Amino acid sequence: MTTTATHISRWAEQATPTTVEGWLARAAEVAAILAQDQVARDRAQAVPYAEVQLLKDSGLTTLLGPVQHGGGGQRWETAYQIIRKVSSGDGSIGQLLAYHYLWAWAVRLVGTPAQIEAIEALYTSQNLFFGGAVNPRDGDVTITEEVDGKLHYNGRKSFCTGSKISDLTVLEGILAGTDKHIFAIVPSKQPGIIYHDDWNHLGHRLSESGSVTIEDVVIDWSGAAGYVDKVYQDRPYATLNLPAIQQIFTEIYLGTAQGALETAATYTKSKTRAWPYGGDNKQSATEEWYILEAYGTLQSRLWAAQALADATGAEIAQLLHAERDSVTPQQRGEVAVRIAAAKQVAVDVGLEIGTRVFEVTGARATSNDVGLDIYWRNLRTHSLHDPIAYKRREVGAYALLGEIPEATWYT
């Protein structure tokens, strides 16, 4: 039994947090548990059932859910901080929690008031976990309206983060003969969703992001998110899903980088030896000037990246919690640019930390038993989600020309 599995009921007799400070403390507990056996679980790449149960038992999964249904009723500023903290303990599980938050909020982004009430009551009261079969680059799920008047989904998705460990799946496809994308929230455990268990990547190995085949998954038009009388109710607010998820990525990267730095520091203090051939010999590695300089540089850059992300997280949260019809394209575009800046800084700093931690720990720290490689592998893998060069270009176009990015599936 893993360390994670032995802790899944530790909060059974504790009240759910009611303050931001309480929620952050709960996230720190979860991160500490995950960090203990992160490397062993990554190597095994077992389906993270226990890890998701840990998230559920801790209460973190209902953080954004309405209080009247048993949720935490918290804001996105807190959710972003929790994603960062959990990712410091395990980037894969941080990703699962982060995507859960986004997909749980998806009905608020595009749904009708009745759909919002129904889905939030369902997932919050039953503590259900979300996955998502949404990959806009793959136009390979076709929706047909059959003679029964219902919508039938068929096709394949290359990625389905959360896949078989989820209770609900956000499903997306294109209505045949149109350019209309239709989102629906469906039960994950049904014959029509076939998981291929083919996620075998360099990093984020426990994110359950493999491909799925969709075979005749059926919904009523009433379940088509945001559609009224078969017409989509469009508004700028709905396009906040992209800057919201880009901020999520930023938090995952910053949490991973923090975890790398903290793990390296523990190793340096306990196992790294001073270099005896430098002419200015030290008694301890913690007295070595090059080690102190490196930690100082990396921590300073990480603090700066975290400060920018704190600011952009607060900015996007203001819009996410605003009245849906009050959000303008200009507001949306400006926050998207700022988040693009935060993301690129987080990627740069995170990859630097993931590489340089070996310089401050030494040759023996490259042992697979130590597992310091997990941080760089996770960052390198997920940061390829969409080309970072395009984020730099978005910021450049805004800085030079005052242009805000067009709302697309990736901006």
Structural commentary:
The protein has helices at residues 20-36, 38-44, 49-58, 76-89, 91-110, 113-126, 241-270, 289-320, 329-356, 373-382, 388-401; strands spanning 130-133, 141-145, 151-157, 168-175, 181-187, 193-195, 212-219, 227-228, 231-232. With 411 residues, the protein is of the alpha+beta class. The chain has 3 domains: 5-129, Acyl-CoA dehydrogenase/oxidase, N-terminal domain (Butyryl-Coa Dehydrogenase, subunit A, domain 1, Orthogonal Bundle), CATH 1.10.540.10; 132-232, Butyryl-CoA Dehydrogenase, subunit A, domain 2 (Beta Barrel); 236-401, Butyryl-CoA Dehydrogenase, subunit A, domain 3, CATH 1.20.140.10. The protein is globular, with a radius of gyration of 22 Å. 46% of the residues are buried. The mean pLDDT is 95.
Brief overview, please?
This protein has helices spanning about 20-35, 40-45, 50-60, 75-90, 90-110, 115-125, 240-270, 290-320, 330-355, 375-380, 390-400, and strands at about 130-135, 140-145, 150-155, 170-175, 180-185, 195, 210-220, 225-230, 230.
Topology overview:
Blueprint: H1 20-36, H2 38-44, H3 49-58, H4 76-89, H5 91-110, H6 113-126, E1 130-133, E2 141-145, E3 151-157, E4 168-175, E5 181-187, E6 193-195, E7 212-219, E8 227-228, E9 231-232, H7 241-270, H8 289-320, H9 329-356, H10 373-382, H11 388-401
Parallel strand pairs: 1-4, 2-4
Antiparallel strand pairs: 2-3, 3-7, 4-5, 6-7, 8-9
Helix pairs in contact: 1-3, 1-4, 4-5, 4-7, 4-8, 5-7, 7-8, 7-9, 7-10, 8-9, 9-10, 9-11
